[in-house]
């Protein structure tokens, strides 16, 4: 299992944060994580989505400081880093999610 | 001179809008347009930026409904579509620009 890297939010640029959110599948994952605070890879995306695709999307979200992933038993559990992300980019996540509706 | 297409904002997805903003050069162009309401291609980007690069960035911004371009004499003048964009994505542009500072 590769090492999970969680950046310090001060090292995440605004462009990188927007890029992470600029994809409908990743927007769906983030919106799901607001509703349901923990998701494993198989519940993060629509059924039938290839594992490698889900993994890539989660990697992009993790690299932008939007999610943290922890290994719990045999699973990787993903959670939003709401507080960290909002401290770095005030109001951005809330505004994006409000516009997704 | 190719035809300038300005989309109806209802046809612009949130992902497309975020993608247009998810680039430091395009963010700079948008921020400049807030300060200075009209820019031609040569003043939109840092000196020395290739014309084709500037043109590509302006095309992405135009396709996302962020700018309108009009032909005035021998120049193309770019303006922000603040009102249209804000009606479609309330608060998004202001939040992004506040986070750029």
Describe it.
The structure is a homodimer of 101-residue chains. The first copy, chain A, is of the alpha+beta class. Helix content of chain A is 52%, strand content 14%. The interface between A and B is medium-sized, with 20 and 20 residues. Chains A, B: This is ArsR family transcriptional regulator. Chains A, B: Pfam families: HTH_20.
CATH H-level superfamily of chain A: Winged helix-like DNA-binding domain superfamily/Winged helix DNA-binding domain
Total number of helices of chain A: 6
Strand content of chain A: 5-15%
Shape summary of chain A:
globular
CATH topology of chain A: Arc Repressor Mutant, subunit A
> End-to-end span of chain A in angstroms?
36 Å
CATH class of chain A: Mainly Alpha
SSE string of chain A, helix = H, strand = E?
HHEHHEEHH
GO molecular function (chains A, B): DNA binding; DNA-binding transcription factor activity
Keywords (chains A, B): DNA-binding, Transcription, Transcription regulation
Organism (chains A, B): Sphingomonas naasensis
Protein name (chains A, B): ArsR family transcriptional regulator
Short synopsis of the structure:
The structure is a homodimer of 101-residue chains. Chain A contains six helices and three strands.
Q: Which helices and strands occur, and which strands form pairs?
A:
Two copies of one chain form a homodimer.
Chain A: H1 14-21, H2 24-35, E1 39-40, H3 41-44, H4 51-63, E2 67-72, E3 75-80, H5 82-88, H6 92-100
Based on the model shown, name its key terms.
Arc Repressor Mutant, subunit A, 52% helix, 101 residues, 3 strands, three-stranded antiparallel sheet, alpha+beta, homodimer
